[in-house]
Specification:
The chain is an all-alpha fold. It is built from ten helices and no strands.
């Protein structure tokens, strides 16, 4: 039977077993990168943050207490890395403008939406406040629970629930005023659980 995340963490700690940690990387890297690409709007920056997050997680495994999931702990590290980069831009308005510019540049340079997202979906995400965007991406795209997302962004659980609800409402409104292509309809159609899109 394949060891779970906690067992792999313990194996890595016990003997500095890099093969065990490599399994953790393989298990979580695709979803973490997809989350960061949507959060950043720029694939290369997201990949850099993901790599840094794994390196920091490896170096800080002794601080992982196991009270929550390894995944939420890893996402918290990645989100802090993202915030450190964005804090250099000083103001929230500058942060929003940078995210929109990065998303636009990514679409223009690749000739299509980044990470399989429709143009309408990227535009709708760009209208959200940073904490709303992070919360809905963590909960709906990355599959974290509200509690795990709260740990990842270091926010109260009630606030995360509010951010997610507000983001879903804004996303539905933004997507309803566009005429999506068949690809966009597939990417943005809400599921039974209210999820707007999947990784």
């Amino acid at each position: 039977m394949e060891p779970n995340d906690i067992e792999l963490v313990m194996m890595t700690r016990a003997a500095r077993d890099d093969a065990a940690f490599a399994k953790l990387v393989r298990r979580h890297q695709a979803r973490l990168r997809a989350f960061l690409r949507r959060l950043c709007g720029e694939a290369s920056l997201a990949d850099d943050i993901a790599q840094d997050a794994f390196l920091k997680a490896h170096g800080a495994l002794d601080t992982f207490k196991g009270g929550g999931s390894f995944r939420s702990w890893l996402y918290a590290i990645a989100y802090r890395e993202f915030l450190q980069i964005k804090r250099k831009e000083k103001a929230a308005m500058r942060l929003e403008n940078a995210l929109k510019a990065e998303a636009t540049h990514s679409i223009a340079s690749t000739g299509g939406p980044d990470a399989g997202m429709s143009l309408d979906l990227q535009r709708a995400l760009a209208t959200l406040e940073p904490l709303e965007r992070a919360s809905i991406l963590l909960c709906d795209a990355a599959g974290l629970t509200n509690s795990e997302a709260a740990i990842a962004i270091d926010a109260p659980l009630g606030s995360v629930k509010t951010y997610v609800a507000r983001a879903r409402e804004k996303m539905r409104a933004a997507l309803s005023v566009t005429s999506p292509s068949p690809q966009a309809e597939t990417a943005a159609r809400p599921g039974a659980n209210g999820v707007l899109y999947a990784v």
